[in-house]
C-alpha cells in the first residue's frame, strides 16, 4: 500500500489576534451596545478568536460612516481612481493569498487545497475583474451615465466566506457605492483580515465597513433606513424574511438563496468524467454549496454502472485535517449544520432510501460527516426536496430525456443544474428546458468572475458576476 | 457480479473474429471528455507526497524503471554499461533496489543478457520494426523471434497505427495476436504510440484492442515522436486496464514511456496509479516507466532524503 504521509500547510503563516473589534470608518473599534462571541475551528473545536458583536447603535455608526464616505469621497471620485484602489486590493489579496487560504481553512473547515486553489484565486480574480469596470460603466449597457445607489447593506454566508465577500464588495465598490458587510457568525475572520487589507491599500475610511454578529446584527443592518441596497446570500427562509422587511421601501434587493440542483447523467455520458463531476458537484466544500449537484438523475439503463464507479471513486476521498494538502473533504462548518445534515440523513433512511458511505475514519474532535449517497430515492422523499447543505447525495433514475427535465424542474428551487452527455444537441435541448440560473454541461461547479450567477424561483433573484452583476448596484 | 464477469469473458473472446464485432465493441465504449480527463489528471498532480511516503515512492519508482537506450549509436560497450547500472543503480548504497528491466534494440540483446543473467532484472527489447512498425508482418515477427532467441524476456511491440487510423481494427488485432504467439513465454508490451492516435477516445479504443488481442502490458509511446507519455493519456489507459479486469478477470500492466524525467513526475504517476487502479498495480510486474534520465534524478532525490543534502550530478553514474 502507498500511504501518503501527513503534508500539513503551516498555520504559522497567519497571525490571528486574540480578539477583534468592528471595522467602522477605517478603524477597528469596540462595540458600544453589543457583546462578543467566539469563532472556533470546526475541525478541532478550538477557539480561534473572540469577535465583537455589533448592536443596533454599532450598525447605525457603520451605516453613517458609509453614508459620509459615499457623499464626500467615494461617490464623487472618478471611476479610474476607484479602479486604482480595487486593483491595489486585488494585488494585495494575491500577495497574501497563502495567509488568507490558511485562515479560511482554519475558520471554515474547508480543505486547504480548495481555499488555496479555488476560493482565494477567485477572490483576487473578482476584484481584478470589477476594477476593470469602474471607469467603463457607461459602456456596460445600463445607459449613458449610470449612477451608484449609495450605501449597500450586504449579508453573506459561511460556506465561502471570503469569496462571497468579494462577490458582494467588488461590484458594489466598482459601481461607486460604499458598503456595510456582515459576515456569518461562524466565519468572520477572513472578512476581518480583508479589513486590514483595506487599510493596507489606503482605501478611504468608511468605504468598506465590517460589522460582525449573528442574526440580530444582520436584521438591524438590512432594516436600517439609511441603506439604499440590500444584498443577501444565504438560506431561502432568511431571504424571505428580508424580502418582507424590505418590501415597500426604496431599497433595491438582490437575493441568492438555496438550491437543490439536478445533475443529469445520460446513457451516452463520458462515465469516468461524469463520476468526477458528480463527486465535485456534491462533495466539493463538504457539500456546503448552494449550487451543489445534490440530486443525481441517472438514466436507468446505465445506473448500476455509474453507481459502481461512483462508489469506487468515493472510497478514494480523503476526509480529515483541513490543513493537510491531501485532504479532499474537511470539517462540517458548525455543530448546528452537522445536526441538520444528520437529521435529514436519518429522515432519508427512515423513509426507506438505501444509505451508503465508504469506510472512512472520522476524527474524534470537531464536526465531521462521511460522504454519503442515498439510492432508491424518489421525488417524494424529503432528501430529494430539501436542501441538505452537506456531503449527501440523493440518487434518482429516469427513462427519457423528457422525464429527466421534468424531474429536474420539479423543485421550488432553480439555481443550477448539470448535464452529462456526449451529444451536443442534447446538451442544448436539455439546457433550453431547465429552469435553473446556471447550467453546466460536462462539468460542474465552475466559477468565473465574468459569468453571471443567480437563481430562478425560490433560489432568489438578481445576478452576481459579469456585466450583469453591476446592475444590482446601479440606479437603472 | 461474478456471473456477469464470466459471461462477459466468453463474449469478449469472440470479438476478434470479425471486423464488425470489433468495431461495434470499440465504438460502443463510453467516450472520454477531454477537459474532464485533463482536469482529473491535473488534480491528482497536486497531491503532496512527503517524507516516508516519498521514500517509499522513490524506491518503488526505481524498481519500475525500464532503463532504456534506443539509439543508432548504441554499441556493445554502451549497453553493457547500462545493464551494469540497472543491476546496481547506486554503487555507493547497496540498499538501493535494482531497476525493473533494461530495454534495447534486438541486436543489442545478447550483450545485455550476459550482464543481467541471474540478477532478477528483466530484459526488454523493442521489436516489430520499431518505431514506425511500417514493415511487412513476416519481417516484424522475425524481429520478435530473434529478440526472444537472443534472450529477451519482454517484447515491446508497436501497433500498426496506419491500420488503426484507417479503421482496419481487425488487422491491428491480428498483428498483435501473431506477435503474442511469436513471443512464446516472453511478456508482450503493446505500444499504442498515443501521440499519433491524438484523441483520448482513440487511446481508450486502442487500449482495449491491445488487451483483447492478448497484450500483457499497454505502453504509451516509443519516445520517437514529439508527444510521448502524458498524465491524462496514462489516466485513460489506467481506466481501461481497470475496466478490462472487471470485465474479464485478467490484469494488464501499464507503461508510460518518454518524457518522464524527474522524481516529481514519477510520483505524480504513482499517485495516479494508486487512486485510479489501486495497490494491485503498484508493483513492477504491473507498472513500469520507460525512461533513461529519470533514474539519476530518482537516485539524487533518494540520497537527499537519506543524507539531508543534495549531491552534484557527478556523484551519480552517467551510463
From TrEMBL, chain A:
Keywords: Oxidoreductase. The keyword Cytoplasm does not apply. The active site is at 256. Residues 29-476 form the Aldehyde dehydrogenase domain. One of its GO terms (molecular function) is oxidoreductase activity, acting on the aldehyde or oxo group of donors, NAD or NADP as acceptor. PROSITE patterns: ALDEHYDE_DEHYDR_GLU. The keyword Oxidoreductase applies. It holds the Pfam family Aldedh. SUPFAM superfamilies: ALDH-like. Belongs to the aldehyde dehydrogenase family. This is Betaine-aldehyde dehydrogenase.
From TrEMBL, chain B:
Its EC number is 4.1.2.4. Pfam families: DeoC. GO terms for biological process: carbohydrate catabolic process; deoxyribonucleotide catabolic process. Pathway: Carbohydrate degradation; 2-deoxy-D-ribose 1-phosphate degradation; D-glyceraldehyde 3-phosphate and acetaldehyde from 2-deoxy-alpha-D-ribose 1-phosphate: step 2/2. SMART domains: DeoC. It comes from the Bacteria. This is Deoxyribose-phosphate aldolase. Keywords: Lyase, Schiff base. Coiled coil: none annotated. The keyword Lyase applies. SUPFAM superfamilies: Aldolase. Belongs to the DeoC/FbaB aldolase family. DeoC type 2 subfamily. One of its GO terms (cellular component) is cytoplasm. One of its GO terms (molecular function) is deoxyribose-phosphate aldolase activity. It catalyses: 2-deoxy-D-ribose 5-phosphate = D-glyceraldehyde 3-phosphate + acetaldehyde.
